[in-house]
Amino acid sequence: MSISVNKKYTFDNFVVKRDNELAYKASLVAALNPGNFSPLFIVGEVGSGKTHLLHAIRNYISENTPLKVQYFSVKDFPKYPKSIIKLDVLLLDDIQFLAVKRGSQKDLLYIFDILHGSQKQITIAGTQYPQEIPNLNRLLISRFRWGLIVDIKSPKEDFKTDYKYSLGDIQEIVAHFFNIEVSDLLSRDKRKNIAYPRHIAMYLCRKLMNLSFLRIAKGFARKDHTTIISAVNKIEEMIPKDKEL
After folding, report:
1. Distance (Å, rounded) from C-alpha 29 to C-alpha 144?
2. How many angstroms separate the CA atoms of 234 and 239, rounded?
3. Which of 21, 115, 189, 245 could make an SS bond with 194 (beta carbons 3.0 to 4.6 A apart)?
4. In angstroms, rounded to a whole number, what is the distance separating the alpha carbons of residues 128 and 118?
5. Are 11 and 21 in contact (CB under 8 A)?
6. Distance CA 178, CA 138 (A)
C-alpha cells in the first residue's frame, strides 16, 4: 500500500485566519505534545486546510522527534495494516469515507483502542462530525468524541456565532490540556491548579480572539470584567519569565 506524504505542507506555510486559528493551534499542540489532545478531530469543508494540518503534524514530528508517525487516507485502502498499532502518532484523513467501509470500521475500532489506551496521538479529519457520518459504528462515534473536536468554520458564517463557538473551544482546549473540566474554569475555585488554567484561558480569549473584557467576563460567568483584566495582566507578566509558558 502506498502512503501519500506531502512534505511541502508545514505549520510555517499554513495561512492562519480567524476561521481556522483554533484548528491550527490544536494541531500545533498535537505536534508539540503528542497525546495531549487524543483524539483530535478536525471538521471542515473540502479545501479548508484539514489535510494541510495533518501533513504539518506528520512533517514536524518526523523531522524533530524519533516518534513513529504516519498519515493515511481512509479512501486509499480497504484494510488497515497491522503496523499501525506500533505507531506513536496516527493521522487519519477523509474519515467520512468510512461510511462505506464497514470492514475497516471494525479494524479501526481495534486500532483506536490500542493506541488510545497507550496514550498515543490520534488525529482525524473529515467533512462531517462523527455523529453525521452515515452508517458509522456507534462505538466509533463515541470514541471520536472522547477528545477535542475543532471546526474550521466557513468565513461566511455569522461573525458572532463564530466567536461564541471559539470561546467555548478555547475553554475546552485549556481544560483538556490541564486535565480539568470546563466547569472548573467557570467556577470560583481559587486553588492554583484551577486558577492558573483559568487565567491562561482568559488570556487566550483576549489575545487570539481580541474579545472585549466584558465579553470574556460573560463567557466565564463573571459579572466584573476587572477579574479578566487582572488575569490577562498576570499571564503577560509571566510570559517573559516562564519559557515553558
Report:
1. 18
2. 9
3. 189
4. 27
5. no
6. 28
* Number of other residues whose CB lies within 10 A of the CB of residue 42: 28
Query: Taking a C-beta distance cutoff of 8 angstroms, is the pair 32, 123 a contact?
Result: no
Domains along the chain with CATH numbers: 21-151 (3.40.50.300), 159-238 (1.10.1750.10)
Of 76, 44, 26, 11, the residue nearest 157 (C-alpha): 44
Kindly give the parts of the chain with pLDDT less than 70: 1-5, 77-81, 102-103, 153-166, 243-245
Cα(152)–Cα(24) distance, integer angstroms: 9
Cα first-last separation, the chain: 42
Query: Which residues lie below 8 Å from residue 130, measured CB to CB, with a gap of 6+?
Result: 41, 136, 140, 141, 144, 145, 149
Q: Are 194 and 180 in contact (CB under 8 A)?
A: yes
Strands 40-43 and 121-126: parallel
Check residue 242 and give left, alpha or beta (phi > 0: left; psi -120 to 50: alpha): beta
Q: State pLDDT tens for residues 116-125.
A: 999 999 999 9
Q: For residue 78, is the peptide bond before it cis, meaning its omega torsion is within 30 degrees of 0?
A: no
Q: What is the pLDDT of residue 152?
A: 86
- For residue 212, give the C-alpha cell: 472585549
Give phi and psi for 124, each to the nearest 5. -125, 145
